Amino acid sequence: MKKKIDFVTNSSSVSFCIYGINISKFPEDVIKKVYEIKKEKDPELDYEKFKYNFDSGDIVEMANKKGLKFTEISEQFDDGVYIGCELSNMDLDETRREFQEKIYLFFKEIGFECGCCIYEDGWYNG
Questions:
Q1: DSSP codes joined into one string, the chain
Q2: Angle at 29 between CA 36 and CA 33, to 5 degrees
Q3: How distant, in Å, are the alpha carbons of 20, 78, 97 from that of 54?
Q4: Where do the structural domains in the chain lie, given as residue ranges?
Q5: What averages of pLDDT result for each successive group of 10 residues across the chain (126 residues)?
Q6: Does the pTM of the predicted model rise above 0.85?
Q7: How many CB atoms lie within 10 A of CB 51?
Q8: 93: how many CB neighbours lie within 10 A of its CB?
């Protein structure tokens, strides 16, 4: 019998359950708000360069600096991305309402007007 001990390179799978948003295109006002927040710490930050390189990682980085333990998951067949906090990251002494409220408030702070919801999905590429 032969064992494979290195990475399997011809398949991948993902499954998740997060509270957050699913987005394919970031609104201009969100990009501007995130830029303004980051510019406070880096006054020489150029908006056009920031806008050109902007992606969901900027939002995840900001959330994680606030202790929210965000994650991002790219959609399997789409250009969209899920951004939010895995439900398994909810503190033991925290209610679901408190957990959801702190995530909603973060998104509102950076300019998202849309509501958050629970996303659970999974897929396998073989």
A1: -----S---S-EEEEEEEEEEEESS--HHHHHHHHHHHHHH-TT--HHHHHHH--HHHHHHHHHHTT--EEEEE-SSSS-EEEEEEGGGS-TT--HHHHHHHHHHHHHHTT--SPPEEEEEEEEE-
A2: 20
A3: 19, 18, 30
A4: 15-120
A5: 47 79 90 92 93 91 91 76 91 95 93 87 70
A6: no
A7: 14
A8: 6
